[in-house]
Amino acid sequence: MKRLFSILAITGMMVFGTANATTNATVNTAATTVVTTQDSEEAAPAEELGFHQGLKKRFIEGGPGFMGIVLLCLILGLAIAIERIIFLNLSTTNTKKLTQNVEDALASGGVEAAKEVCRNTKGPIASIFYQGLDRTDEGIEAAEKAVVAYGGVQMGQLEKNVSWISLFIALAPMLGFMGTVIGMIQAFDKIEAAGDMNPSLVAGGIKVALLTTVFGLIVAIILQIFYNYIIAKIDSIVNDMEDSSISLMDMLIRYKK
Question: pTM (2 decimals)?
Answer without folding.
Answer: 0.71
